[in-house]
Inverse folding.
């Protein structure tokens, strides 16, 4: 038993065993945490978009509500731009949608100008919406706090099927449900929103990989 020296056992436990565990887990199906669906089939943004240029379906969207007080929303959107948008700008089908009352066009144009100073705006979508339609869209999210002056300090994740995603076991939420992410809390954007978007993308990646594997398996057996 000279082979099983103390040094070799330590090396095995430190390096080989964790690698084996990782390979076993990575080859299994759905051995990862999926981002919970909190609300299904919310209103499609194209139904309230006066420009008719944006859709939720087929995209991973981060949605926020600027409201009447554009200046008050500015710092939160700048945080979102720096901590989230710039991290995911090159991800496929990723977009940030900022909804605002249509009469605030001039103030929003100035906000866009400030954000675009050091940012490629290709995946930013600023959507003017008639005031009376903003609550209709927001209420379809079924979140646990109301709009204030047509705005919110939260950002929301909408998946490719038009469902609201979030957390059901968040330690900082009273009932564990995290519907939206605080735009004014940089730590929450970095530690929660960023992580949850990554989880959602990995979920799509794993589903794509499983689909291709199943196709290959059927082809191999002649189905």
């Amino acid at each position: 038993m000279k082979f099983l020296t103390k040094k070799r056992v330590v090396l095995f436990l430190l390096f080989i065993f964790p690698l084996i565990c990782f390979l076993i887990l990575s080859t299994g199906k759905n051995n990862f945490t999926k981002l919970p669906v909190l609300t299904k089939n919310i209103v499609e943004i194209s139904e309230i978009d006066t420009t008719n240029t944006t859709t939720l379906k087929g995209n991973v969207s981060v949605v926020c509500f600027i409201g009447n007080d554009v200046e008050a929303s500015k710092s939160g959107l700048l945080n979102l731009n720096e901590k989230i948008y710039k991290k995911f700008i090159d991800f496929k089908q990723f977009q940030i949608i900022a909804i605002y009352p249509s009469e605030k066009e001039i103030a929003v144009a100035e906000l866009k100008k400030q954000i675009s100073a050091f940012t490629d705006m290709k995946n930013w979508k600023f959507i003017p919406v008639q005031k009376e339609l903003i609550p209709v869209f927001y209420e379809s999210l079924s979140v646990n706090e109301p709009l204030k002056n047509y705005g919110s300090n939260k950002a929301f994740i909408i998946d490719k099927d038009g469902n609201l995603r979030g957390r059901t076991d968040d330690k900082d939420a009273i009932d564990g449900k995290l519907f939206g992410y605080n735009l004014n809390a940089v730590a929450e954007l970095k530690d929660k929103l960023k992580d949850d978007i990554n989880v959602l993308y990995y979920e799509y990646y794993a589903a794509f990989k499983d689909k291709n594997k199943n196709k290959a398996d059927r082809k191999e057996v002649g189905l």
In short: The beta strands are 37-39, 60-66, 94-101, 124-129, 151-158, 164-165, 181-182. The chain has one domain: 37-211.
